[in-house]
Amino acid sequence: MTGVDDDIWLAGELATAAGALLMRIRADSGLNDHALGDEGDARSNDFLLDRLAAERPDDKVLSEESADDRSRLDADRVWIVDPLDGTREFRTGVRDDWAVHVALWEQGSGLTAGAVSLPALGVTYTSTADPVEATAGLAEPRTSPKPRVVVSGSRPPEFSAAVAEAIGGEVLAMGSAGAKAMAVVRGEADAYVHAGGQYEWDSAAPVSVCAAKGLWCSRIDGSPLLYNQAQVYLPDLVICRRELTDAVLGAIAC
Ligand SMILES: Nc1ncnc2c1ncn2[C@@H]1O[C@H](COP(=O)(O)O)[C@@H](OP(=O)(O)O)[C@H]1O
Ligand SMILES: [Mg+2]
What we know:
Fructose-1,6-Bisphosphatase, Chain A, domain 1; alpha/beta; five-stranded mixed sheet
């Protein structure tokens, strides 16, 4: 019998260890660009699947890098993992904005545990209410008090500027859904908005952590983010400080 604290601890331990593996691959494999990304995706996935099979043999897994085992739809507990989020940034060999995501979904409760590691920064965030001190590292330190809206560097939503304007802020591009969500947790940004495409594994662990830290997390129409669905496409999200929610959702709705 495991408790939720055990699951949160395991999520953190696995995200941290997979991140350490990815750092070693980046430093020692001699691979570059797409070959480096492919190696990282595959080995981090193998590591997470092996460890989950050993630690939680009765649970199912939904992973970006594995075939979808549809028996998860009848399961009580499903781990939703993205072994390497921000592959594009990881494979540069130098960028820090990539992450490992490990989340647990439970029947009747939704997301109950989650962890996001930022291996290049040597930190992991878990779905506890423990406060996080404001920290720099993913983005340049703030030079103005303006709120920051983080968006995809490669696929920014069309409403990015409108959201920034609505909160009197500025837009900041960053890779990786996990890194952007953790930028809000870390106080480096104030909102993360996305639209146009994403999958459950891109947001499950980040949303689990952000919700536990008291941040607003929803679809862009304000409806709940639902996980372990038959269709794993979950194309948009908003994560923000709660006092910004009405302005952010209102700007997107316009
Ligand atoms: N339009 C889109 N369609 C599908 N996936 C998308 C997407 N935009 C972003 N994503 C996914 O969301 C994650 C963060 O993207 P971004 O850095 O652009 O914000 C990436 O995950 P992976 O790196 O795990 O593939 C990326 O593939
Ligand atoms: Mg991803």
